[in-house]
Amino acid sequence: MAVPPIVLVFVNAMLIDTHCHLDCEPLFSQLPQLLDEAQALGIAQWVVPAIRPAGWLGIMELCRRYPSALPTIGIHPMAWAEASEDALDRLDRLAPQVVAIGEIGLDRQVADLPRQEACFREQLRIARRHGLPVLIHCRDVIGRTLAILQEERAEQIGGIMHAFSGSLESAREFVRLGFVISISATITYQGAVRPLRLARELPLSQLVLESDAPDLAPQAHRGSFNRPAWLLETARTLAALKQLSLDELAAATTATARAALRLNA
Fold this sequence. Notes:
Elements: E1 15-17, H1 31-39, E2 43-48, H2 56-65, E3 69-73, H3 85-94, E4 100-107, H4 113-130, E5 134-139, H5 142-151, E6 159-161, H6 168-176, E7 179-183, H7 194-201, E8 207-209, H8 231-242, H9 246-260
Parallel strand pairs: 1-2, 2-3, 3-4, 4-5, 5-6, 6-7, 7-8
């Protein structure tokens, strides 16, 4: 599917997509085209999160081939059963080669929350040992996720709340713990309420952008796989909500992302 023409020039700022599954199909087989398309619109970097251990080395190799892609590795809550001792040992050994641990967390729609929690805690400890931020997946388990982050002293590392769908009040609790809130294309959806409130009320120093491609396509493309270039539609919507130019919005969210991921060091 061709992307509708979009005219945009950033003068001093570029966008960072803080959550984009470039290793997943149908993106992976079209990467050169899709990344060129996105870069032409001002999207400069992509954080590539892992789902399961089998994908870690592939993500790291992809990021070597495409230096604008930044690797993260971790075990998603839906893959908690793959968190063997060997897998966690590998995560510990590979951690110095990535920018974050993720995506990790809890998901009410996946079976066995107690084992998800055990997997989550072990990965938080690895992240803290290496001083790495974390990318947090949290679906319908806001309170428990916050409690575990507090218990595991996650304020020492911080990170990003991926595609956050909680309330403004809960978002502020995560911000107090040192996390930033990721805004996805849900702010473009008809009938969106919570995402729009977060986008309006939280300052840009607490917000980053993500596509979650190939999932979460913007409203205009729902039913299609999401493309990296369509992050621009989320950025446009957020800029309008904040009454800013796209260049101002890009500069602010990029600065927040770089700080959260320690990319300024």
